[in-house]
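User: Hi! I have a protein structure encoded as tokens and I'd like to know what sequence might fold into it. I'm fairly new to this, so please keep things simple.
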């Protein structure tokens, strides 16, 4: 088989992983809600001395597209290894414990009791991918709310679930 034919077959096989249905704004908002609930659940399981690593694995498997394509993930509290293109790298960010990423403290272990979203906008001009940008607010157990900026890119898998393939978050600029 020639190179062009092989590339075409690979492309067609990849397309079988994705839905042909357009992504709606309501689906993006629902996916954001699920993401926040997942972060809260990981911290709760950690606080209750349960298997928080398994909770984080399920969170990533359900909401990120590491099994579909490259995921471009730049978490807020990462500077030495800023980009998390693999499942294991994302897992380390959420729950720590991977010596490849010694800076990770387990973001999702805080724990948080609430995640609130303020979308600046959601676009889906191509129908197959939606991008949302805005601020999300993480409420700690003491009531303190932490504001974080985000950009998230979503695709829809063959089962109709939105999956994150781009995730960039950062603390707001502080001129001091």
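Assistant: Happy to help. Inverse folding works backwards from shape to sequence: for each of the 176 positions I chose a residue that suits the local structure. Here it is:
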């Amino acid at each position: 088989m020639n190179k062009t034919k092989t590339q075409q077959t690979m492309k067609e096989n990849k397309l079988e992983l994705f839905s042909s249905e357009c992504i709606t704004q309501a689906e993006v908002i629902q996916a954001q809600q699920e993401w926040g609930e997942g972060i809260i659940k990981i911290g709760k399981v950690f606080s209750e001395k349960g298997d928080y690593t398994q909770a984080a694995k399920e969170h990533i498997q359900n909401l990120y597209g590491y099994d579909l394509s490259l995921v471009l993930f730049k978490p807020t509290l990462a500077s030495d290894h800023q980009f998390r293109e693999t499942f294991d790298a994302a897992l380390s960010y959420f729950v720590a414990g991977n010596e490849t990423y010694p800076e990770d403290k387990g973001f999702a272990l805080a724990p948080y009791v609430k995640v609130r979203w303020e979308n600046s906008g959601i676009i889906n001009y191509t129908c197959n991918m939606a991008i949302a940008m805005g601020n999300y607010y993480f409420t700690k157990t003491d009531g303190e709310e932490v504001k974080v900026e985000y950009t998230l890119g979503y695709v829809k898998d063959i089962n109709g679930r939105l999956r994150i393939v781009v995730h960039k978050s950062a603390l707001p600029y502080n001129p001091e």
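A useful reference point when you look it over: Strands lie at 72-74, 112-123, 129-140, 145-156, 162-170. Feel free to ask if any position seems puzzling.
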